[in-house]
Specification:
It is globular and about 75 Å long. With 306 residues, it is α/β, with parallel strands linked by helices. Helix 8 crosses helix 9 and helix 8 runs parallel beside helix 10. The chain has one domain.
Length: 306
């Protein structure tokens, strides 16, 4: 599943190019475990089209060792052995605002619903259609994985891993300064809304530490981690710099991941998961029911005037 990366300019100008048949992996050794980290453009339903989802499933089937995925990936793809429970690194307030941002206005609710339907119905991506290759069409294409992960990161509008981790910590402390990134493909407009609450770097740390700890607990020499794009280059950087970056939040993420690996079904974890899901659901239900109620009142008022 090795990939020969090419520059973006070559990808956009090439008259003929064979796109990858599998996702590419960032590979490194961490704490005695060989890690294969696959960045996934998971969209809202597993990919912006069915072809991309098939690409992910095909890669999972070929991946070595213990195969683990980001939260909710088991419901999106087949062949995973478990999930990485990265929701543990999302504070309850962020879990609420994560959903609220997507449902804040009726227009956003309609756009979200339309995106869900579009992803379910689209058979393949738009990149290269009619021999037109544009970055605004690449967000659901295997062509995206022809580009090196660090370059993909910049293309998507994200800073380097060290700076991004600093921003995540600053946001937790209420002093963040970075505006949310804007991906060129409009199918990903929703990402800009939720990114400030996604805690991507600290989730990356949790998933790597937890995945490696689970591999060791299960006697696996290799672990394949299927995670959202950006997490992959985060992890590759962190694996080389984890001891040089001093932060109580990073230390807490590491300790929490390792403790969770030792007892992933503890009562505390299950309670935390329920509360997290409630906070996340509240963020979507409160505005949705508010607008439904408002629409009902307007409709009733209209009937009374007839």
């Amino acid at each position: 599943m090795s990939t020969q990366y090419i520059p973006v300019s070559d990808l956009l100008s090439a008259t003929r190019l064979d796109f990858p048949q599998y996702l590419d992996a960032v590979q490194f050794d961490y704490k005695g475990i060989r890690c294969h980290v696959f960045g996934v453009l998971h969209g809202l339903t597993g990919g912006t089209n069915r072809g991309y989802k098939e690409l992910v499933n095909r890669t999972i089937a070929q991946a070595p060792g213990l195969r683990l995925g980001e939260m909710r990936f088991s419901s999106l793809y087949s062949g995973l052995h478990g999930e990485l429970d990265d929701w543990m690194q999302i504070p309850l307030g962020d879990a609420f605002w994560f959903s609220f941002a997507l449902h804040m206005t009726p227009i956003r609710i309609a756009q979200l619903f339309r995106a869900f339907i579009r992803e379910r119905l689209a058979a393949k991506d738009r990149f290269g259609l009619a021999d037109v290759r544009r970055l605004q069409d690449i967000g659901g294409s295997a062509a995206f994985h022809s580009i090196a992960p660090d370059e993909r990161r910049r293309l998507a509008g994200f800073p380097g891993p060290a700076r991004y981790l600093q921003e995540n910590i600053a946001r937790r402390q209420g002093s963040g300064t970075m505006l949310a990134p804007v991906f060129p493909d409009k199918d990903w407009e929703w990402l800009t809304l939720i990114e400030p609450f996604a805690n991507i770097p600290l989730r990356s740390i949790h998933m790597l530490e937890y995945g490696v700890a689970l591999a060791r607990e299960n006697g696996a020499a290799d672990v394949s981690l299927f995670v959202g794009e950006i997490h992959n280059s985060d992890m590759a950087w962190y694996a080389q710099n984890n001891f040089s970056y001093a932060s109580t939040m990073v230390a807490a993420a590491i300790a929490g991941a390792m403790a969770h690996a030792r007892n992933p079904r503890s009562l505390d974890v299950r309670i935390h998961r329920v509360v997290f899901n409630l906070a996340n659901a509240a963020g979507s239900l409160i505005p949705t029911f508010f607008y439904l109620g408002l629409a009902s009142l307007v409709a009733l008022r209209g009937l009374q005037l007839l």
